[in-house]
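Sample A.
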Amino acid sequence: MTSSQASSTGTASDASTTGTGTGKETGTATETGTASGTASGTDTKTKDHSTKTTSISIDPAAGAGGISMITPASTTTTYYKIGHNVTFVWNYTSLSVTPSAIDVVASCSLNSATYTLTSNMSVKETGSLVWDTGKYQANPTIPLLTATYTLFVVDSEKSLDDTPEAGYLSSNVGFPFGMYIGSKPTPLNEFLCVTCSSAMSEFQRTGLTFAAGMALITVLSFTWFAGTFGLFSL
């Protein structure tokens, strides 16, 4: 090797450098900490509640409320056979204060009994009730009789004998209906006595009156004739 050749392995300051430069930067950046805190509080939202009080002005002269019967009609007394269903339908009248619930009862003066048909019934614009008298009569507390009854619709918070108040439901007015066992009874105003003179027709009564009048005239005429000609003196 001649002196003119420069072949060496050495540091980076040499003119010709052969080597491997390896650089490694190793490190760990660790940020460690504890964020600790307590947030305590109460988020209270207060909503104002306003109570509305409705005031109803009721004219004392308006009278108490009541019911108007639809079925059966209030113009006549309807008779129902015991053992069958009985339907009642009614409307309310002159109500300023609607009851929260009602009771429907029937009273019978013959045995001084009151029968509760239903209790705590909801109030609707048109009230209706079907009374199963057969179910009741099968196990009655007080048996139903052949008699006339009176239907009452009562405020559940009141009784039958409470004093009526203007605008409130009153039970002072009842509606009659009949109940019977066996054959339907004949109302008194329809009763016909076949052996009574009132059972005859107008034509029959006129004929009988005419016949009686003619008989009387005949007797009087004969008496006058006999007296005139002295027949009674013979």
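Sample B.
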Amino acid sequence: PATHARKTAMLELNATLYKLDELKGQYNAQPVQPSAHDLLNQALYGNNGEISATDETTFGASATDACNPAAGGKKGRGMSLASDLPCVCESTDQALGCAGKGIGTATVYSSAVLAKTWYEALVKKCPTVKHGKLTASAILAAVASFGAAVKTQGKATQAENIILGINNAADCNSGGADGCVKYKQEADSGKLDIPWLDKLIEAADSISKENRRRQKNQQLLKRAIALADTAILSYVRALGGDPPQKQLAATTQVPQAAKHSEETCNKHQSRDKCTEPCKWKEDAADKDKKCSLDPKNVAEQQATQEGTGEAKKEEKCAWKGEKECKDGCKWEGTECKDSSILVNKQFSLSMVSAAFAALLF
């Protein structure tokens, strides 16, 4: 049924759908690209993100190319973490300085294939540490720690050269002697030009952006759930229909008895028919109006009607006979009654019946 509760629920549902569509437009389902996972693999293995010994994206052709290239030369230093590890651990004693004992293979950076082989052997000797979820702050802390350590100038000979693996040297002479890697530093800004380090910083930024994306989506989801809950509550209220209304005050006005009753009284031509609020006047000038309205009786009846509610409606008809029972009155059984009261009672009965039927079905 078209109840007020139903109309209200429809308005709330339409408003909810509009807001949900608005929230849907703000929802970002696309993860941040490139992902932190991809960037970390690029930091470890080079731009392709996969370890390779054939295309010189992970390892260089020699220590000279990978660990200490001439300015403006080949890809060289910092091309990948996987390449820098053999640079630092290169030696003639099977990387005892890094692994603590021989790794069972040559540790001279003489080709990309050999570098890959003993990188994989060397990694197995590295201790593993359990850690929780990788965070942007943890990555940036590691980057800062590396930057502070690698820029420490040990001796005057090293001067402004950024060399990891040896101190007091102006150059990194690789080739089986002392393992090292020489990084390039921008003259103006002092920034280290290390590709894998840049990838780590990008990975930290990607994690931060992805976290913000997920947090915003979570907030949108919470708002959507709250809107849906409100809409469902409105729908449930609508199923129950409108709440019962308070009984309205009677709107029937006090009858305009003066003119109506005067005309009615004049119709009575005998004393026995001339009853209140009429009064019989034997000496009336107009013989057709010997029965006329008594103002005193009218005033008393109106005062009584105002204090007795619906009873006043009955009184205006109660004194009438069957033939005179009209003009707002209706003959019922053996007495004349106010027709408006009968209609109201019938209407109330029909409303109760309809409500009861609604509860059943």
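B remarks: Confidence is low (pLDDT under 50) at residues 247-258, 309-313, 342-361. The first strand starts at residue 162 and ends at 164.
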